[in-house]
Amino acid sequence: MPLEIHPPLPAMEAKSVDTVPVGDEWQYEPKWDGFRCLAFREDSKIELQSKSTQPLARYFPELKAALGSLKPNMFVLDGEIAIPTENGFSFDALLQRIHPAASRIERLASETPAIYVVFDLLAGEDGRSLLIQPLRERRSRLEEFAATYFETGSIRLSPATPELTQARKWLAKAGATLDGIIAKRRDMDYRSGERDGMQKIKNFRSADCVVGGFRYGTGSKMVGSLLLGLYADGLLHHVGFTSSIAAADRPELTRKLERLIEPPGFTGNVPGGPSRWNRGKENTWQPLKPKLVVEVCFDHVSSNRFRHGTKLLRWRPDKAPEQCTLDQLAQKRSDLLQLLK
User: Fold this and answer.
1) Residue 110's domain spans which residues?
2) Which 3 state secondary structure label does DSSP give 93?
């Protein structure tokens, strides 16, 4: 019979929560740092779909080949595309793949091959949809599927557990290899495009950073964001930003920052200018004397940079800028990669 489900199929998504849900109905999984991807195979046709239902196959030819080498000629999988490195997974390496030049993609596929970490089976080798089946049934089918067919190192089975103790151990490792954990209701069907029955929990950490520069808000003369830096080998490297500044504090803070404007601001890695995200528009910033220190809360680090914006916790006038070093972000690589089957 033909495959019963086809792209576009919006992925089931997770709702962000602050605490790990508890109960026999929950299953816990690592939250891998990569691109969400649904993989469809029907005979020789293989499609990779992003969370936003966009095609991904041309960017990951090595995964398309690996999925094509699996014995069954029909299935639909849900998982995460990731690129492993010595220090965990590299989101920056993933971003490099989204490029129009096929020659560049082929080179990167050879130099930094991706893996596909699978955590759900949406259609089995008979082509029948499993969307209405509860997760406990889909997980059982997935484990059988993986044990039978996952012979290539590029396709891995993500671990899962009903044990809260193990889930908390995974959450404690978040920040390098992991982006947090996912909790899923074992008694629920696959709810395409919804956030019901699936939750994500992140482990937040804090760091003291030097304010090496700032940007004005869009169309404003008030500060919009602070540019954060950390020292390594005597150089101040840009590591991210924070924009969580109370509106009432912005006028006085802007005046304070403007009195400290002085190049170069950052002496190592610097904030970017125009980028793929702003379509060539100027992305200017004001350099500051390295005098101010703030403590920020962050959830994830990739290539010695905060992956997302941070939350400003407090100013640290008691802390010398030179004490704000890059080793605050250091974290041993998680051994969870060894759990991928």
Assistant:
1) 15-203
2) helix
